[in-house]
Amino acid sequence: MAVWFHVTTGKGNNPGSGWAPGECIWSPSINKKGRIAHYGIMREVQSHDKIVICVNGDVRGTAFVSKTCREETKGPPDPGAWAYARSYFRIDLSEYGVFRSSVRLSDVAKLFKQDIRREMLSIGPTYYLFSWYPASEFYPGGKLVLGQGRFLARGTPVLMESVKQCLDKEDQAGLDWTDDA
User: Fold this and answer.
1) The model's pTM
2) pLDDT by residue (tens digit) across 20-66?
3) Does domain 3-100 have CATH number 2.30.130?
4) Sign of CA dihedral 38, 61, 161, 49
5) CB of 63 within 8 A of CB of 51?
């Protein structure tokens, strides 16, 4: 079982619609230039993988993959900026459990900046949840930020442990995992 972070605004897709956070993960199947680009990561998610749901920058809970990625012509009720798409990738989720507490991803980045940076340098994942801005006049010590366009990213040992340490004890069990992928 792999663990993934799903980052969304959840805007326009209300709970119970089948398209809300915790119910599914969706994306256009191609970008405006006609390329799969980073949307192809949807095909890497397997049945029973754990999904850490993040809405508006908050870690909210976890769910499990019940149906792997498929392409559909019917899209979400409110696709927003992705209304151009003729088809969508969709992954169905089940067993959505909402945490009692939540943690901001920006707080995780601040608290565990050095640990996450070391992990990024050592394993170098293509679609890591965060991006590093090196030291500059704007960021004298460098800055760790949520990666632009990263709606889906593989969980890693340091990411999982960092988020887990920020949650209440009751919620920490929801992030127990082993990545068999």
Assistant:
1) 0.89
2) 999 999 999 988 888 877 888 999 999 999 999 999 999 999 999 99
3) yes
4) negative
5) yes
